[in-house]
């Protein structure tokens, strides 16, 4: 049962109030775990409440109050939600910065939000903030992990405080003034801005969407009504906390449903920790599902013929069952297929699910970008109940999801309760209205006017349609749709996803606006292609070298041809090139959530693209490469351009 | 010192887990506990005087010595055959000198066997890692705590409370250094097959788990890539700064020495030819000649 219900809409409350209610009702229940020093440490709801209380008072002692903004730059660790809800207890909104952001991006978010305090995970993030400090309003930096801090001792005055000291300070204040916290949380309201969230920013600087407690909790309640989550379910916090998708699960849904959030020990131990926990449900962007699928496929390739044969038979049964399950009105395939799937499970799939940590998954979501339907089908064939989510930062993450008995490959699902979706008749744009729609963009009334209509409809910027039985189909971002010179409209994501289903292709940028046909710039998948090359004893010295090997290009040609066979004639990729550098957020070619920035890519590889359309078979490409130590060098290499069909 | 304690406290008692905010978050850093320990008040931690080592008729070290201040990182440099490693081996107790003495924390340890020295707080790492190749990282680190083991065969066979508590404590000590040197993802991996840079870090971790006052490192950077060197150097600085551990390094890589060390002792043919801050020693004509002309 969701906590904190007291007449009216259940989401007319705030995070600090909900937390207090949970701590009162089930103080000893596990709220979250954190792996430290090799052991999963358990924190109850009472622990959680006390920590948030101290964090709030610690921030109060620093002089924060209603209307201020507090930023954080951390990975997935308890300090983040504690700090965030602590700030919200004072009526302070938080804003997250991606942990791997460069100083410029850090500066931009800190400036745009006017944050006065910032929580950083460790020395690396601290350095980024210090670099741009004079361009911001930051007065205090809270550091979670004190390792390496001795270098700053005595140099920064009282600019720094450790998170631990902040908590201690709050605790001291709590003992001195026991009623203070309750008075502070009494002053906040569901309409307060709980957080500012950066929009994805595929076409420009990200904007800051203001989401209130009510927005976030309405979304969580609606999702919970459709997909209830048990209090004993496990969840692993693994997505960037600055992303609304992680906020939605690890905070909003967590407070509403009361499951157990698990924080991994370190980013590099994530998958081992994930496997130890074996979560019951998870939410991950397409790249995680792609990664898992590619790893499994590559491992199968490496195994012995007997195992491969068993796997092939099992996955064929899995596919058969999946196709029959992904039909309106079904939660499971018909009986004979259930039996086959049962056999397949015990013969091979169980082991795969166990190794990947997906064995206990009852419900999995993908969102943030479009996941190719091949991957969705593959996951269902393995036995993972993977569902599409559609939403965006401006509606607190989710507006549309597949009901359990109506999962389909070609749609993103049906609107959540209390959510209206319609298609703009002129432009084909998807419009959404719900209690989760944001208050507006922070300090940007002009953009707000463009996005929100006076009667509460949100312009999503996506193009789509609604099927007769009420499912939403999303084509692509309106700005991304390509029009070939003969007028054919192409949603590049669709084509890219077909290409990316190859285990050897990590990224694909499909280009062709105003051109006679489509071409693609590919990034090989270094992990799988290098394994493939090692098996064939093809020597290579690194990513750049491997990406241009004739054998690898031939492999890519086969993979592109295979993808083409499954696309309509006009949507086929005629020519492609393998880049010797991966697309990277640090180079602006992708957003921090790993979405391609088409405009940047088309500009940077302009010469190469022109050469592709001129019909040349190679091009001398010069790009800036980042070395391991952070230096940048210009690199020039001959890139071969291939025709997809030999 | 911890081995004087009657009973080793269980991990949770060591942390003070659940006692206040920091305990609740498991947030305190390993360093804090070391920092609260009294540092060696003044003077030297290690005094090596007038050492002479001979092998048959060959004189390897001829009257060399140095003085290590608390918290110092000291480097022994010099061309091949200068006697650096021999001198280090005298300090760690592998060689017995013909002449001279080694004083550690005010106590003459010249005649003490190596394992007794390590119990006093003098740990060492090796040029070619001397880890147990078929054991995991955490097992290797715990093996370094063997001199402090407090239970015998009978306890182990019956898995008594005494044995369990000791193992728990040792695991805890190991986890502290795993965190400090960021070895988390290698914790349960067998040492054989780990990259050389990681093996060096495991070697250092094993030394540090023993709560040493001084760590002797024989060519820690040999055979490492640039990035691995930087990682290891950062780890050394971190341990030195937060825990006040002093280091004596035998090192060839002058760049590392310049970045890392407070004090450099240059040797040639078994003698000390120059001594002082790194910049000064690097400019010393005798050192330049030994390196270039030698």
Provide an overview of this structure:
The complex is a heterodimer of chains A (646) and B (294). With 646 residues, chain A is of the alpha/beta class. Chain A folds into three domains: 15-271, Rossmann fold, CATH 3.40.50.12780; 277-418 and 460-478, no CATH class; 481-643, GMP Synthetase, Chain A, domain 3 (2-Layer Sandwich). The longest helix of chain A is centred in the middle third of the chain and has 22 residues, at 335-356. The radius of gyration of chain A is 25 Å and the shape is globular. Chain B is α/β, with parallel strands linked by helices and 294 residues long. Chain B has a single domain (32-292), classed as P-loop containing nucleotide triphosphate hydrolases (Rossmann fold, 3-Layer(aba) Sandwich), CATH 3.40.50. Chain B has helices at residues 11-15, 20-25, 30-35, 84-92, 114-120, 137-143, 153-158, 161-180, 196-208, 226-243, 254-260, 278-283, 285-292, and strands at 46-55, 58-68, 73-77, 99-104, 107-108, 122-125, 214-218, 246-250, 263-268, 271-276. In chain B, the strands form two sheets. Chain B has a six-stranded mixed sheet, with helices on both faces. In chain B, strands 2-1-4-5 form a four-stranded antiparallel sheet, covered by helices on one side. In chain B, α6 (137-143) packs parallel to α9 (196-208) and α9 packs parallel to α10 (226-243). Chain B is globular and about 65 Å long. Chains A and B meet through β2, α2 and α6 of A and α2, α8 and α10 of B.
């Amino acid at each position: 049962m969701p906590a904190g219900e007291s007449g009216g809409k259940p989401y007319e409350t705030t995070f600090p109030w909900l937390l207090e209610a949970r701590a009162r009702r089930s103080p000893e229940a596990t709220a979250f775990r954190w792996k430290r020093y090799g052991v999963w440490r358990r924190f109850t709801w009472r622990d959680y409440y006390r920590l948030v209380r101290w964090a709030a008072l610690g921030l109060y002692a620093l002089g924060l109050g209603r209307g201020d903004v507090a930023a954080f730059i951390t990975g997935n660790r308890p300090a983040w939600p504690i700090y965030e809800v602590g700030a919200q207890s004072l009526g302070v909104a938080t804003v997250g910065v991606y942990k791997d952001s460069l100083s410029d991006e850090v500066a931009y978010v800190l400036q745009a939000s006017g944050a006065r305090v910032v929580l950083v995970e460790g020395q690396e993030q601290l350095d980024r903030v210090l670099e741009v400090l004079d361009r911001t309003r930051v007065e205090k930096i809270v550091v979670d992990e004190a390792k390496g801090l001795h270098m700053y001792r005595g140099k920064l005055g009282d600019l720094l405080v450790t998170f631990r000291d902040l908590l201690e300070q709050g605790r001291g204040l709590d003992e001195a003034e026991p009623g203070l916290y309750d008075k502070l949380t009494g002053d906040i309201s569901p309409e307060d801005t709980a957080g500012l969230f950066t929009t994805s920013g595929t076409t420009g600087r990200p904007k800051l969407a203001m989401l209130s407690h009510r927005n976030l909790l309405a979304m969580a309640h609606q999702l919970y009504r459709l997909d209830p989550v048990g209090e004993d379910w496990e969840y692993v916090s693994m997505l960037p906390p600055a992303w609304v998708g992680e906020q939605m699960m690890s905070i909003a849904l967590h407070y509403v449903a009361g499951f157990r959030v698990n924080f991994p020990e370190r980013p590099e131990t994530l998958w081992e920790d994930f496997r130890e926990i074996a979560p019951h449900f998870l939410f991950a962007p397409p790249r995680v599902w792609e990664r898992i699928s590619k790893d499994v496929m590559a491992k199968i390739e490496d195994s012995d013929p007997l195992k491969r044969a068993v796997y092939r038979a099992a996955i064929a049964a899995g596919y058969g069952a999946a196709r029959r399950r992904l039909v309106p009105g079904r939660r499971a395939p018909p009986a004979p297929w259930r039996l086959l799937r049962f056999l397949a499970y015990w013969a091979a799939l169980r082991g795969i699910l166990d190794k990947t940590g997906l064995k206990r998954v009852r419900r999995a979501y993908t969102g943030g970008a479009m996941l190719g339907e091949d991957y969705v089908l593959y996951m269902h064939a393995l036995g993972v109940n993977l569902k599409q989510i559609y939403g965006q930062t401006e509606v607190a993450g989710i507006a549309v999801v597949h009901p359990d008995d109506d999962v389909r490959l070609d749609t993103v699902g049906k609107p959540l309760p209390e959510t209206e979706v319609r298609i703009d008749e002129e432009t084909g744009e998807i419009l959404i209205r719900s209690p989760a729609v944001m208050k507006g963009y922070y300090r940007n009334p002009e953009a707000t006017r463009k996005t929100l209509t006076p009667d509460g409809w949100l312009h999503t910027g996506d193009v789509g349609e609604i099927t007769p039985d009420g499912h939403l189909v999303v084509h692509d971002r309106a700005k991304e749709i390509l029009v070939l010179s003969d007028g054919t409209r192409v949603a590049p994501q669709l084509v890219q996803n077909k290409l990316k289903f190859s285990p050897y292709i990590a990224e694909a940028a499909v280009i062709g606006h105003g051109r006679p046909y489509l071409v693609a710039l590919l990034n090989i998948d270094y992990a799988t292609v290098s394994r493939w090359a090692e098996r064939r004893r093809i020597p290579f010295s690194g990513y750049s070298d491997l990406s241009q090997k004739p054998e690898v290009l031939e492999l890519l040609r086969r993979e592109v041809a295979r993808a083409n066979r499954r696309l309509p004639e006009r949507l086929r990729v005629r020519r492609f090139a393998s880049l010797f550098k991966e697309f990277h957020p640090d180079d602006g070619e992708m957003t921090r959530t790993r979405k391609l920035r088409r405009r940047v890519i088309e500009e940077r590889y302009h010469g190469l693209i022109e050469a592709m359309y001129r019909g040349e078979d190679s091009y001398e490409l010069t790009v800036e490469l980042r070395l391991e130590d952070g230096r940048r060098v210009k690199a020039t290499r001959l890139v071969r351009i291939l025709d997809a069909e030999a | 010192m911890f081995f004087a304690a009657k009973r080793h406290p269980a991990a949770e008692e060591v942390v003070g887990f659940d006692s206040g905010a920091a305990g609740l978050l498991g947030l305190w850093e390993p360093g804090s506990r070391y920092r609260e320990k009294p540092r060696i008040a003044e003077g030297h931690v290690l005094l090596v005087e007038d050492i002479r080592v001979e092998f048959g008729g060959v004189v390897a070290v001829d009257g060399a010595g140095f003085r290590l201040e608390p918290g110092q990182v000291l480097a022994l440099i010099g061309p091949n055959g200068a006697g650096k490693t021999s001198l280090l081996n005298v300090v760690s107790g592998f060689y017995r000198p013909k002449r001279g003495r080694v004083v550690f924390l005010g106590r003459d340890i010249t005649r003490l066997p190596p394992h007794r020295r390590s119990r006093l707080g003098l740990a060492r790492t090796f040029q070619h890692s001397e880890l147990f190749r078929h054991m995991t990282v955490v097992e290797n680190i715990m093996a370094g705590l063997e001199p402090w083991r407090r239970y015998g065969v009978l306890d182990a066979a019956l898995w008594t409370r005494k044995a369990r508590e000791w193992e728990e404590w040792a695991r805890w000590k190991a986890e502290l250094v795993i965190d400090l040197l960021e070895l988390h993802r290698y914790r349960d991996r067998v040492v054989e097959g780990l990259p050389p840079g990681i093996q060096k870090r495991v070697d250092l971790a094993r030394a540090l788990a023993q709560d040493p006052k001084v760590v002797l490192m024989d060519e820690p950077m040999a055979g490492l890539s640039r990035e691995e060197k930087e990682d290891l150097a950062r780890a050394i600085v971190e341990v030195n700064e937060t825990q006040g551990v002093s280091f004596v390094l035998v090192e060839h890589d002058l760049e590392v020495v310049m970045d890392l060390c407070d004090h450099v002792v240059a040797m040639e043919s078994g003698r000390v030819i120059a001594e002082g801050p790194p910049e000064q020693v690097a400019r010393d004509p005798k050192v330049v000649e030994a390196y270039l002309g030698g």
